[in-house]
Amino acid sequence: MNNSFMERTEKAIAGLHRLANNLWWTWNPRAQDVFHALSERKWRSSNHNAVAVLKSISHAELQARLCEKEFLQSVETVLQAFESYLTKEETWYHEYSSGADGKLVAYFSAEFGLHECLPIYSGGLGVLAGDHTKSASDLGIPFVGISLFYRNGYFQQRIAPDGWQHESYPLIDPHELPVELVTDADGNPVVASVEIGHSTVHFHAYRLNVGRATIYLLDTNRDENDLHYREISSRVYGGDSTTRVMQESILGIGGVRFLRKLGLAPTVYHMNEGHSAFLTLELLREQLEAGSSREEAEHWVRRHCVFTTHTPVPAGHDRFSPDLLDHLLSKFRERLGFDEQTLLAYGREDVSNKEETFCMTVLALRMSRAANGVSELHGRVSREMWQSFFNASSPDEVPIGHITNGVHILGWMANRTRQFWHKHLGDKWIYYLKKEAIWAQVSDPDLIPDEDLWALRYGLRRDLIEYVRRRMRHQFHSVGADYNEVQDSILNPDALTIGFARRFATYKRAPLLFRDFERILALINDSERPVQLVFAGKAHPRDDQGKSFIQQIVGYSKNPALFGKVVFLENYDINVARHMISGVDVWLNNPRRPMEASGTSGMKIVIHGGLNFSIQDGWWREGYNGENGWSIGDDHHDQDVALQYEKDASQLIEILENQLIPEFYNRDEFGIPRQWIQRVRKSMETLIPQFNTDRMVADYVMKYYDLGK
Ligand SMILES: *Cc1c(COP(=O)(O)O)cnc(C)c1O
After folding, report:
1. Ligand 1, from 115, 157, 502, 584: best to mutate by most atoms within 8 Å of Cβ?
2. 398 and 443 both lie in a single domain
3. Are residues 236 and 383 in the same domain?
4. Average pLDDT for runs of 10 along the chain of length 709
5. pTM: predicted TM-score of the whole model, two decimal places
6. Residue 249 CA to chain centroid, in angstroms?
7. Residues 6 or more apart whose Cβ sits within 8 Å of residue 631
8. Per the structure, how many domains does the chain have?
């Protein structure tokens, strides 16, 4: 080995460490291949964590492994792509802003769902925040995120033999994660503080690199804090109202203070849901301290804040009792120079009502220059809900708009699917996800033959089934049989495969499909045209009804008449989701309208050739056009919840029986379901360019961030 080769390998090793500490690898399969190749076992056992893989390998081994020329070259290729991604100047935002400098978006969210190795999210809200950040990076938007570092994360789910969900909270170790402690020039942690009750609570932060974007995760686990303050940030949405107010104080007030410590002055503060709305009070405090009048200060705050609401029902909004709030914010309030009622009024619809609770959504709405819901229907529902607050004579005058959610397509794409598009469309499409002309090509059977699409579907369905069979081994004790004997009978690679996975919130109505048990039983067991179902999802630890829904589905999966045809996968997370959304033929979503503000899981399947079968709610109400999937119900819902349940259940099974199953099994002499494939093309062509976060984030920039020239 000569010196220049040594230099090359050392450079590659340094590059690998930089790469592992940037979640860019989570949406770049070539980068993942490198860590997978370094240690396949560790890659799997760490839930695909690049940092954990590198930690488990000595410098000597890395040097030796990189002596293999082909491997070194593939590492260098990945590192070059990484470097050019980070430094690229011609981004969408650069073009849009004509190079304007000095803008910065600060995006506050109580959770970020970025990757399965970082369990700091509970569900759709977090996944949306994660996808938002990845697209902000891809589009070149100056962007910083704020959240909490949850040492115990969100819970891990185990299902007991009786079907009941049990939760555990493993400790996560920041040294094993793609995060870095934020330190000053002397290497000491940067520490900021927030007044809580009569105390001062200190926190440091971890930096999470997401491509060109950065997220700061605040952590109160410091020696100088009392024990109960050290645990503020231990669990995602953990504890009672007291913990929630304390978490939200750290997130909102602490978030602004931490940005200041770093010398950052964002030009827009985006609140993703109301949890972070205390940030407006901290901004207000800063303005007052700088000598502004209250009116000027409020005006300044409003000019800098935007708010996205995600909650379509009044009961879903964070509300705190006046006593609790005043107690926990007392010292902070003194710094604001407000009396008790003045502070509380910011979170009240009726500022003179001293009984009214303090609502985070009200605070956010009052202190933002603009607010939006996350689908067209949700925007409308929100305008109706807040009409009296805004004193509007009609809902149309309420200043709440909408931007429909999306998903970060590259991050959700299975490797097999990525290769498929690479083969048929080349590489350019990656940079034009929201360009309709790119996806219009999908209608051309000369470019993409039916046969290729059908082969893709079969390949992806097989991948899912292999995954389920591997995974079921570890949860099989709850079924109690010899796994080796039965594993090949779990799921049928030729059967129509329907997926249902999401949080088991009761409004999502997981058991709806089983309303007429005999009828679904007959469909599943039809030997000519079988149907199979894959379920996954967690119920909130305090939601016993959600847990009973899980128990019901797990019960069906153990019923001898349904065994291997109805499957429940434990511990739903981003990894389980990724396998499910790519493998299933049909994605079922049947929430109670209009409770699904947007929903995003159905958007993830489209690029893989899956089809949506959903209620006319949230995004699907906009996406469905009559020929790109199937719809349950119409643009209307009954106030009678039980009646609506019956209607939806009967229409669901009706469409399944008379439309979906026949179309899936209607094959020509080559075994290909032409009509089905035609529907898949329509789905891709119409949905991909719309329901992605590149389109969504660009909408935020143009409509709400005011980041133009
Ligand atoms: C996409 C996703 C969600 C959101 O699913 P919805 O069906 O839109 O509620 C929740 N959890 C995980 C892990 C996801 O990947």
Report:
1. 502
2. no
3. yes
4. 87 98 97 98 97 98 96 98 96 90 95 97 97 98 98 95 94 95 97 97 98 98 96 91 97 98 97 98 98 98 97 89 97 96 97 96 97 98 97 97 97 96 88 88 95 98 97 73 85 98 95 97 98 97 96 96 96 97 98 96 98 98 98 94 96 98 98 98 97 98 82
5. 0.97
6. 23
7. 613, 614, 615, 616, 620, 624
8. 3
